[in-house]
Amino acid sequence: MSNSINLVSTNVVGLEKELKRLKIFRVAAIIGLIFVSLLSVLAFVLNVTLPIESVKNQQKATITEISVFNKKLTQYTLLTDRVRNISSIISNRKDYGLNTSVLFGITPVDASIDTLNIEKGKLTMSVSSASLSSINKFIDDIVALGVKGKIVKNIIVQELTSNVSNGTYSLSIEADIP
Amino acid sequence: MENNKKINLEFSNFLILYKHYKDYLLPSGIMLACILVVFIIVIPQFQQYFSSQDDLKVQVAKLQLLKDNYNFLANLSDAKANSDFTALSYALPNGKDFAGIMNAISYVSAKTGISVGDFNFSLGDLSNKSVDGVSAYPSVKIDVNLVGNSQAVMKFIDELYKTAPVAEVTSIKTSGDAGIISILFYYKPFPPQTIDVTAPITVLSNQDLSLVKNISSWNNTVAQSLTPVIPSSLFNSSVATSSAGQNTNPF
């Protein structure tokens, strides 16, 4: 007797729990449904509102506008190409003007440059003068330049000759141009 | 018989379970559908959104570049661009500019008062590569006999370096009142190029502008009377290609 009463009581409690669990389950399902729906709508709206097409249309319009300046663009592109190339040539080409002007500058007034050859960074020159002291001064000056190494370097005095017939001294030197 | 009983038993179990849990079926189905929607639709949609945002940034940058190009070209002076291009084209011709070379030598000779003797042109390697000078550029080599001492020869060279077309003296030989110099006159064909409006326009730096100004002030012996040497074929379409190696020199 006692057992049957207890059995009925357990079923009622179990049923209530079951109903409660079912209710929670339903509420969770509805909340999930609403949440997912909102997320879907949000994702859709975000994707739709991105103005990629509008930007692409603006690009097309700008390209059309630029095409009016096609000649100018081509010319400017070629102009920059010329600038780049000329700049490269000028910065890489040899300019012996500074070197020779310095050499001319240290040549004494009573001395003259008889020969001057420059090729592939190699300088050979001969200087003549009636005065041996002028030749000596020239040697001193050019050696001083060689020490600095900016105008000439690796100076070799090839020969120093005396021409008795016309009373002049002649100096031949060889050097590298940096 | 035993088998039939077993089947009936399992079916009845299933029915009992169904009756017991049938209220859970709809919420379970909804939750399962929600999970599927999240994985199949929502997550890919958000991924697409983020990748579209990156794409949008790229497209906006591209649009800005196009607008910058447009503004630059709209503000570029036609006359200035023409005169600069003309000066630069004579300084570095598109092809072998024999007339320009002859004119330059004659002009420098007249300006410095140094007599010029025989010319000796050397067309050089067909590969268009310079051997002695700036090796990346094709050149025409010319040996010039000059009448003058060392100082006069150097004066000639100095003036030649300020005269178009751009030249480099590779060898100087003077003896007494005579000299021989070897000169390379450079040229460079227009690059075979596609003009791409979506590429950024390289704006000349101050150093470049200074170079242009300097070259514009060079002795130009032929430019004034002639039209610019830009090949007209380059203007025909937005995708323009120059004929590399082909001499479009107007001389």
What's the SSE blueprint?
The complex is a heterodimer of chains A (178) and B (251).
Chain A: H1 2-49, H2 52-67, H3 70-92, H4 97-106, E1 111-119, E2 122-129, H5 132-148, E3 153-163, E4 168-176
Antiparallel strand pairs in A: 1-2, 2-4, 3-4
Chain B: H1 2-75, H2 78-91, H3 98-112, E1 115-122, E2 139-147, H4 150-160, E3 167-175, E4 178-186, H5 206-216
Antiparallel strand pairs in B: 1-2, 2-4, 3-4
Helix pairs in contact in B: 2-5, 3-4
Uncertain stretches of 5 or more adjacent residues of chain A: none
Taking the sheet with the most strands of chain B, its summary is: 4 strands, antiparallel
Structural class of chain A: alpha+beta
Instruction: Please give the radius of gyration of chain A in angstroms.
Output: 49 Å
- Output the CATH topology of the largest domain in chain A: Gyrase A, domain 2
Tell me the number of structural domains of chain A: 3
- String of helices and strands of chain B: HHHEEHEEH
Please explain how this structure is put together:
- The complex is a heterodimer of chains A (178) and B (251).
- Chain A has a four-stranded antiparallel β-sheet, with helices on one face.
- Chain A is rod-shaped and about 145 Å long.
- The mean pLDDT of chain A is 87.
- Chain A has three domains: 49 residues; 38 residues; 80 residues, Gyrase A, domain 2, CATH 3.30.1360.100.
- Chain A has 178 residues and is of the alpha+beta class.
- Chain A is 64% helix and 21% strand.
- Chain B has 251 residues and is α+β, with helices and mostly antiparallel strands.
- Chain B has a domain of 158 residues: Alpha-Beta Plaits, CATH 3.30.70.
- Chain B contains five helices and four strands.
- In chain B, strands 1-2-4-3 form a four-stranded antiparallel β-sheet.
- The longest helix of chain B is centred in the first third of the chain and has 74 residues.
- Chain B is rod-shaped, with a radius of gyration of 38 Å.
- The chains are: A alpha+beta (178), B alpha+beta (251).
- The interface between A and B is large, with 66 and 86 residues.
- Strand 1 of chain A pairs antiparallel with strand 3 of chain B.
